[in-house]
């Protein structure tokens, strides 16, 4: 479930299949010194440099025709500090391997997104998040960061050391340097009880503030062409563990959420008129269930049906209005949308270009099955989200440029000034960064 580079012609493609690039050179460094040497050599050769993890971004944020750094040898835990309750990991470590390694040590991240295929640096650099009333994105759990900057020097930063770099580089978009290691806050391994149940969209929106306030982690999926949602509440539990049974788990998570869903999407792509009926059946297929397991097994789920995605963060209080407008737009547009719309929340954080920077946020994510036309749906959705002051997820499709982004990110100028200082020659530039940060 990762990006691929075909050896035949050296073309790299992202997971969603919507971005391709042909790097001039591909490098797989094994140490921080290798990364620094790669950066210096690229600068001497007049080539741009980008690091790419598993290619889970739908934007071309990692694409380059210069030097592509693949961090697959920069993996594993460097050290655990049980007094400070932090763990330092190499940048190329996939989240799924970090989760397993931490669990073995009796430790866990506080919160995470619903996919764990990404590398730690890729996930944090783009602002990947789960849902949480009090706990925020993965980047907000970073306590320290190591970065190779444009002159090939290694810079470490934290709240105390180079704090202005730390404020920005936690969600650095790959624009400030190559992240080589991250230090995360961790806590003792804990259990979560998940309660999943269908609910009408009207009820969820009417009770949203209460559902948000009463649960540590609340999210829901709305099925377009229906008035139905599936809600999920995750709360800490004293146990005992009661994981989803193997057969039930396979049926719900593999058969329904991946297998049948894949077939339904193939049918929908071939015959769009069938999509509303499929949506009504899908929304009824998922029944209520409750289970208790270690945190990462509850937060994350397998995603084998490939899609493209756009996600915006709106002020939390704007959620109901934005979602009602989205539903009205889908209902009157004649669009056929086979993927549910995902809604999550995050508290305000202090990261310069985080989508939740300085404001409590609700996230609305729209998806389309890979290979189906998505532009009309995404364009219409984007105009609704931007009217509410929405900020696009950096790793998901959007059409915003630097001028528009500066208007919704109050600390935008702080980030670009730091970039001017750390990368004056734009060694880490690509077309996407030119659009979203300015030349």
Describe this structure in words.
With 439 residues, this protein is an alpha+beta fold. It is 33% helix and 25% strand. It is built from 14 helices and 21 strands. The strands form 5 sheets. Strands 17-14-16-15-19-20-18-21 form an 8-stranded antiparallel β-sheet, sandwiched between helices. A hairpin with a 6-residue loop joins strand 2 and strand 3. Helix 7 runs antiparallel to helix 8 and helix 10 runs antiparallel to helix 11. The chain is globular, with a radius of gyration of 21 Å.
Layout of helices and strands:
Blueprint: E1 4-6, E2 11-13, E3 20-21, E4 25-27, H1 32-44, E5 49-51, E6 67-69, E7 77-81, E8 86-90, H2 95-104, E9 107-108, H3 120-125, E10 142-148, E11 154-158, H4 163-169, E12 178-185, E13 187-188, E14 191-200, H5 201-206, H6 208-214, E15 217-222, E16 228-237, H7 246-270, H8 275-285, E17 289-294, H9 295-299, E18 307-315, H10 319-333, E19 341-346, E20 361-369, H11 375-387, E21 391-392, H12 402-408, H13 412-422, H14 431-437
Parallel strand pairs: 4-6, 5-6
Antiparallel strand pairs: 1-2, 2-3, 7-8, 8-12, 9-13, 10-11, 10-12, 14-16, 14-17, 15-16, 15-19, 18-20, 18-21, 19-20
Helix pairs in contact: 7-8, 10-11
Calculate the mean pLDDT score and round it.
92
The biggest beta sheet, please? 8 strands, antiparallel
Radius of gyration, in angstroms, nearest whole number: 21 Å
Dominant shape = globular
Poorly predicted parts: none
Per DSSP E runs of 2 or more residues, the count of β-strands stands at 21
Q: In what range is the share of β-strand residues?
A: 15-25%
The tally of helices reads 14
Fraction in helix: 25-40%
Strand order of the largest sheet: 17-14-16-15-19-20-18-21
Distance linking N and C termini? 33 Å
Query: Structural class, judged by helices and strands?
Result: alpha+beta
